[in-house]
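Internal tracking record. Fields below are filled automatically when a chain is submitted to the structure queue. Please do not edit lines marked as system-generated. If the sequence contains nonstandard residues, flag them in the REMARKS field before resubmitting.
Queue: standard
Priority: normal
Entity type: single polypeptide chain
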Amino acid sequence: MKIKVCGLNDPANIEALVHLPIDFIGFIFYKKSPRYIKQSPQPPEGGSESGSPPSGDLGGILPPSVGRRGLKLVGVFVNAAVEEILNKVHDYELDYVQLHGEESPEYCREIQSFWAASTVRQARFIKAFAVDADFDFGQTRAYEGVCSLFLFDTKTPQHGGSGVRFDWDLLEQYKGNTPFLLSGGIGEEDAAAIRALDFPQLYGVDVNSRFEVKPGFKDVEKIKRFLESCRAT
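SYSTEM-GENERATED OUTPUT FOLLOWS
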């Protein structure tokens, strides 16, 4: 069971979290989110004044230890311009791009075509889908082979981070081949229910607001207990 912790923006909090056995950490580049990465990227000391951040620095937010622990870095975007995706993946050494808007498969292919024709850093796609009782899981078929992972989140106007859980029984309707992350209102008390889930394409869970002290700052001990419980045999 892979664990992704999303919506981080405090350097000390991140430093504490990266010592836990998590697999992905997510950073939100959507300006309307309360967890938006607000720090302005700064050029390296003695380096260019172009405004480009140090490679993989995430604007001074990431501690140096992140790159040494095998964590995958995920950038979260909502209907961003293609150029922004390309720049953020390169500048911040992102491993995954998580799309939370109305991005089409053609949008993903356009970016992949640019990567294929250049030597700049590439990333994989995670496509998020907003799930409610009326959601048609057939919508995911168009993204098969384009995205490495899907993410099923609760449908809300906020594009995620609502703290609201959808009916997990709806996942029975997903018949695709692409592995998925489960998101939306997951809290510490849900670990046992997550262990009991029996969906063949369930790859892991994405946690955020239910583990927060405040937006962007996570309760490390609560996440630690959740990890231990999720992975208990």
